[in-house]
Amino acid sequence: MDRLSHPWRSVLYIPGSKERALEKAKGLPADAIIFDLEDAVAIEEKPRARALLAETLRSADYGQRARIVRINGLDTDWGRDDVAAMVGVPLEAILIPKVNSAADVQAVADLIPDVDLWAMMETPLGMLNAAGIAAHPRLVGMVMGTNDLAKDLGTRFRADRLPMITGLGLCLLAARAHGVTIVDGVYNAFKDAEGLRAECTQGRDMGFDGKTLIHPDQLAVANEVFAPSEAEIDLARRQIAAFDAAKAEGQGVAVVDGKIVENLHIVTAQATLAKAQAIAALSAG
Ligand SMILES: CC(C)(COP(=O)(O)OP(=O)(O)OC[C@H]1O[C@@H](n2cnc3c(N)ncnc32)[C@H](O)[C@@H]1OP(=O)(O)O)[C@@H](O)C(=O)NCCC(=O)NCCSC(=O)C[C@H](O)C(=O)O
Ligand SMILES: [Mg+2]
């Protein structure tokens, strides 16, 4: 499945050093996995995690789950070796942490050809340069890093994420302007399903494609919230049918449930049905 039709509802981080989690993930209902070599791996574990991950990705079957590897930054002792270890390894993308500008994307692009690149959006400079980062020709995905962003901004964690909204919005605008996939940041309280649901709903309403997760228990909520609901699928079908009927009568506008339906609403309705189909195909596969 290509990136544009692939669902990105649930994107699960797995520390690259944890064999048990790497094994468990082969059977988890995640749309994508971020195999982490950065913050989830202790300094003394970095070389072992890198070798373990390269070997695991060469030999293991993760089915249709997209495989993304988060490397350490090139300004660290491990970043270049991480990239070198991933050359020729079967994966969908490399995720670059703490991207401040398009030059940070280019620096990794120079080291590894033919691999899609994703950017962690988690610094104040990254927010301000989001449009330039999204426009980089090798960049196809963005991941919000709301923990690092909160740290750098000095914000408090609030349920409504008000201090984050400007950054989230800037990155969403940049991603949509350049056809880049974008997933929301993690919800740290991994035992709080209600809080996770509220934050997923906020992210979905804003327009994110999905949410990054840290624990398997978070998968079901993200998969549900970021999928079209039965009501949305039913409405999409009725909008398309009503618009086709209106067109056949020479009209450019239909009315469904007391609301107008124009060509642009049909684009959204078709996207809703396409996403539902892609999710069904992923679940079946
Ligand atoms: C948070 C955890 C440390 C909790 O781990 P643990 O105590 O082992 O949880 P459980 O005992 O409940 O685990 C039950 C089973 O599930 C497996 N497991 C746990 N987590 C994962 C996972 N992420 N992927 C796959 N499998 C997982 C356990 O192995 C148990 O399996 P089994 O024994 O076979 O039943 C832990 O969940 C964890 O380490 N999570 C990932 C943390 C992480 O990756 N952090 C970095 C990314 S977040 C970030 O950096 C954001 C960004 O950069 C920012 O700035 O915001
Ligand atoms: Mg981070």
Automatic annotation (TrEMBL):
In terms of superkingdom, the source organism counts as Bacteria
* Cofactor(s) the protein requires to work: Mg(2+)
Q: Which residues bind substrate?
A: 70, 122
Output the GO biological process annotations, alphabetical, semicolon-separated.
Answer: oxaloacetate metabolic process
Q: Give the residues the record marks as binding Mg(2+).
A: 122, 148
| UniProt keyword terms in alphabetical order | Magnesium, Metal-binding
Q: Which SUPFAM superfamilies does the record associate with it?
A: Phosphoenolpyruvate/pyruvate domain (SSF51621)
> GO molecular function terms here?
catalytic activity; magnesium ion binding
Q: Could you say which residues form the signal peptide? A: none
- Which InterPro entries does its entry note? Aldolase/citrate-lyase_domain, Citrate_lyase_beta/mcl1/mcl2, Pyrv/PenolPyrv_kinase-like_dom, Pyrv_kinase-like_dom_sf
Domain named HpcH/HpaI aldolase/citrate lyase is located at 9-216
The record's family statement is:
Belongs to the HpcH/HpaI aldolase family.
Protein name, entry field? (3S)-malyl-CoA thioesterase
- Provenance organism: Gemmobacter megaterium
